[in-house]
Structures are given as C-alpha cells and as structure tokens.
Target: Integrin beta
Amino acid sequence: MDLRLLLIASLSVVLGGSWAQQEGSICTKASAQSCGECIQVAETCGWCSDENFLTVGQSKSARCDDLESLKKRKCAANKIENPRGSIAVNKDKPVTNRKDVAEKLKPEDITQIQPQKLTLTLRSGEPQTFQLKFKRAEDYPIDLYYLMDLSFSMRDDLENVKNLGTDLMEEMRKITSDFRIGFGSFVEKTVMPYISTTPARLLNPCTGNENCTSPFSYKNVLKLTEDGDEFNKLVSQQQISGNLDSPEGGFDAIMQVAVCEKDIGWRNVTRLLVFSTDAGFHFAGDGKLGGIVLPNDGRCHLENNMYTMSHYYDYPSIAHLVQKLSDHNIQTIFAVTEEFQPVYKELKNLIPKSAVGTLSSNSSNVIKLILDAYNSLSSEVILENSKLPEGVSITYQSICKNGVESSGDNGRKCSNISIGDEVFFKISIESQKCPSHGKSEIIKIKPLGFTEEVEVVLNFICDCQCAAEGQPKSKKCSGGNGTFECGACKCNEGRIGLSCECSKDEVRTEDLDANCRKDNGTDICSNSGDCVCGICECKKRENPAEVYSGKYCECDNFNCDRSNNKLCGGHGRCECRKCICDANYTGSACDCSLDTSTCLAKNGQICNGRGTCDCGICKCTNPKFQGPTCETCPTCPGVCTEHKDCVQCRAFDAGPKKETCEQECSYFNLIKVSDRDKLPQPTDQSYPLTHCKERDANDCWFYYTYSNLSVKDNTPSCPAGPDIIPIVAGVVAGIVLIGLALLLIWKLLMIIHDRREFAKFEKEKMNAKWDTGENPIYKSAVTTVVNPKYEGK
Model:
C-alpha cells in the first residue's frame, strides 16, 4: 500500500473512532436504568444483559453503550440487546396495466399506487425506508362539476355555457370513456350589505328592464350525470341574479360542493371542480359586515339543492377550504378573467392540486381552458400524509421520469407524467421516542386529487425482548425488592442500588459510608464517586470517554502522561493512570517509537551511518551532518568534488594525490569501464547513484559514477588541438568577403542616388512653361520672290 492509501486508511480509523466516541457519549450520558430506556436513546445504543458484565465501581447505566464499545468491553455478542426495526408489506396489488385487461374496469378495480398497506416496526432513531410506485392509469373515470358565478356581470357568459354539456362531453370522451358532468351556481349571502333586502330587490335585484332571478348563496342545479343534453337543458333555464358588492360568495359554494358528496354525486374517481367568475371572493371575517360571527362549520347544509345557512355561518377561511378540498380529493380549476388573474394565482399557491386559466370576457374559451388545466393537473402527482403521531417524522425522495431524483419539499412530487408512466417515491419514517400509550398508530399517504391511499401501520419497539423474560420479586434483587431482567435488577419503587439492597432513606448513613473509604482514609470514593448502599458508584464526567473506575473510584483513564497534547502520545491507552503502550512504542507517555523506518537514509543505512536512531529520530554523531536522517552536510563539498582527486589517482595514476593515493584513496571500490555509455544509469539501480563530470590538469574531461557501493570510471575524453591553416584561411576569406560586400553596398547606394536625381530633372523639365507669342515689330530677314514665268520645270 502506498503512502497515500496509508494516510486515507489512518484518517478513516481516526474518523471512525471519533464517531463512535460521539455516539457512545449519547448512550452513556443518558444514564439509562433499564434496557427499554437504553434503546430509546439512539439506534446505535445497546444493552449488555450479561449478569457479570459490570466491573467494580460501575453503575447500572454502564450497561448501556454504543455497540462497538460493548464489544470492546468484552460483552458477548449474544448478550447484547439491540432490537431492530422492520417492514412488512400486507397488501401489494400491482398497478393496473390496461393492455392486459380487455373489458372495461370499475373505478374501484383500477390501481394506480403500490403497495396499498404496510406495517412498520420502529425503533427510536432508526428510520425505515420503503418505496411506492405510482402509475397514471389509462381511461381513468372523471367527475367534473361546473360552478358558475351568476351575478349580473356574467350574463353574456351564461349564453356560452348553455351548450357546454355536450361539447365538453365530446372532448372529454377523447380522454376517458367514463365522464360525468354537473352544474351549480352562486351569487352572494342574502343579507345586507351584500344584497339589497328591499322586497322589490329581493324579487328582481337587477336595474332597468333586466329580468333577473332572486339572489341566492349557492344552488346545486344538476348533480353529476353522464347526460350532456340534460346539462344543456337545465343550464339553459338558469337566469342571472345580482348583488351590491364586487367580491362574490364563491367560497360558500366551494365548501358545499366539497362536503355534500351525496348531493353532488361524487364517485371515488378523479374529481374536478371548475370555478368560473369575473370577480374576487369573500373569506372568513367578511361575514361580520352582515352581522354573521359564527365561523363556518364545514358541514353540508343543502336543502332542496339550496344552501340554507349562508345567513348563519361566516365564509370559510382559505385554510379551511384547503383542508376540505384535500380531504375529499377535489382538484380545483379557477376559470377567471384577466383582471383577477393575479388574485387567483396567489390563491392557487395556497391550494395544492389547483390550476388557474384565463377566461375570455364571454366564456367562449371555457372548454379549451378546462382541457388545458386538466392536462396540467393530471400530469403532476403530489404525495401528502395524514397527521403524524408525536415524535414521528417522514421524508420523501422522488424518482421521476427519466430517473430525475429530488428530495426535500420537491421529493413529494413528480411532474410531466404521461399516461402509462411509472414514477417512484422513497419514503423514510423515523420515530424519536416511544408513544406514551405504547400502542400502534396508523398514518395514510395518498396522492393529492386521487382517492387511492396507502395505509401504514406503525408499531413501536419500546422494550427489549429480554424484558419479557424478567423475574418479578427475584431473589437476586435483595430478596425480592425488584425484577431481575436483562442481566440487572429493576428496583421496586423506593428501592435503590445495584441489587435494590437499600431503601432511599438509608443512603447517607455513616456505617455505609465507611465501606466507601480506601485504607480508612477520609475521602469517600476518592472524591470521584458517590457512596450508594456502601458501594462506590463513580461519577460521570462531561466527556463520556473519560471514566472513573475501581472499587473506590481511585482509577481513571484520563490522568496519564501526555505527548504532543495527546493522551499516551496517541499510541496507547490509559489504565488506572498508567499508559499501556501499543506495540513498537515505549516510554511513560508512549512517545518513544521502536520503529527505525523513519531513520532510514536514501542509501538504506540507519541515519546514513553517521548517527543513532533514538525513538524514531536520528541523533547525528558526526557534527558536520544534520537533517532527519543525517544526510545533510552544509559545509561539505559536493560528492563529485570530494572524490575527484582520488578517482584521478586510482583510475589514471594522475592528479594532486598521485603520491599519496594508497594512503588517502583506498576507501572505495573502483570499477573501470571502457566507454562512457557503459556507466550505470539511475534507472538501472535500486540504490542512490551520483553522476560526475570533472576536468583534469590537461583540460581533459573524465566521467564517473559514485554510490555507497563503488566508483565506476571510463577513459578521459581530451579535446583535440586546433588546426591553424583553416583558421587563417577562414579569417582572410572573411575579410575579403566583407570588403566586397561593402563595395557592392556603396555601388548600390550610388545607383539609387543617380536615379533619384535624374527623375527630379525630368520632373522639372515637364513643369517648365515657355512663352510662344510673336513680337509685333519683328520682321523676318528672309524675302521670298516668285518668278511669274516659272512653271516648275
């Protein structure tokens, strides 16, 4: 193993020891008096049920320790009580695969989550992890309830909704063959100041010639049905109503739709609630304006399909609404106009499994809005759990499509799930303590918006198995003053001591204290313990790794000599204030190593042959040498220079030591080789080797290698004398060439200069301007006479 691996291994041991010490501190610090108390401290704690386990001076709580410490303290493996939790799957029906089923299935026969029931046995501090599978089923039934605001501002929307039944039914048939639709409407509470309570306005709340129906809070117009024509027919008969303020009483209507399952006709299938409005909403507290102070009770109050208690109960709060929608597995789609988008988007963030769509001014896009919202909701699965028992926690980790993993809050959900996709959730449940009643608990985990759920039964390990074999009124417990269980006495009320031998009233008597003084001294339990029933029970220190022991608590494991601020130098253990050293270490603080490997020099000798190895450190005997292995000599010449003269005299019979060679240079072995290339190479040797190159008096180079084993040398390489003729000829030729080069350069410069002057002359000549006019008084000196008789013959 190389040094790096050794360091890693050493680090692992140190870290492991620190961890065990830290965990051990939890177990021993708890001062558990029974096995049941011990296993509640942490999952790493165990109880030694060996009757003879405790040493003199140790209390009953010393039986409780981390598992590794118990083994080191010689507790047999079959005597260590360490019960573990477990998981049992009680119902594991596979998720439905529609390809394997030809006939149409009933909703209750479709399975989308697996398994359906588990039993977990929990020990405090030990999490139990199981996996859930979710598969979005194909052709899963859907119930959709359309809840519409029928205040006066929605009059044009009502016309477009009248044909919604058959059109929506046709579109939803493409998603599922089992689809039902229902319709309800709402306006406002029928009290001032939400509506006008004058008799005329109660009959017709609209102004002008508008014919409106009387105001109402919520009306269930049509329970869920498969008949789209019936939906169109009943919706066509609806009339607009009116109110005074802008926010509407939609929350009252949502609450009744959620809790009145029989009146609405909800099945245990996908439940969708479409909430359509162009206004805001009232919520808890707003009812005080109308003198309504009773909070909403969250119950169904429908009579003849009308909400009859709107004047009696306040609007529900958002939290109350969220709870009821979740309890009844209803997914909400808010179809609202552009103006109120910000308000309902904030509301969506508070209601899980809800969506918001932008409704056109006349609701003409409502079908597309519903389809888009449904696809968004159904493509996401979010797990939730019922209320957890006290001391129980749960964590989620999701493994979604394409193996994407998430944890924390995102571990509860997966998005972009298509029909037939499978996703998985790893769920860990941990108990921090045993419930006071000690009974089983049941929690339920379900995907939001779905009726299916997983039932998880929680059983708690509150005591050790050996406790069931306890012996009440055992003779081992001071004649029947306790129950002997798990190797120790569990004392009856009012009794104390390892064997329940004392009454609480007898603890501080002088006679008992005398048994706790060593050598009849004055110190009780060496001032390091308490005298309980005449027996010293040693005190516990803040650091649980530090322990008092002995009959009189006279020993400890932390007051030994230290080295490098480590107890026993980190190479031994402290027993009764004396270091017990590990192998290869000695000294009062185990700070002297007997290992000489740290003293080995590069040549394989201990301290380079110039010192002694004392406790793993070289002490150099030659004052010229220093360093960790006595290899450094700041005042010494180099190896090559130091041995140059001796190599010369031994190899070539030359040099300044030629006359005294035998006396001064016989300290090494010399091996001569014929050629420089035959000298040893560093890669060929397993010992340090130095290559040297030196010059002698004749200006010749000679090469040799030096090691602690021998010196190898070859024939010197002398430089040849200079050849005079070539040198002289070269100098002369150089001078001639330089002269010719200078003449050529001068000639070239003169040619360039002449050409420039000629070009300058030509340019001036071209630019000259001569006067071409004639002198008016000028007469030519030539006179021409023509003979008239001359005919050119």
Notes: The chain is about 25% helix and 25% strand. The two ends are 137 Å apart (CA to CA). Confidence is low (pLDDT under 50) at residues 1-24.
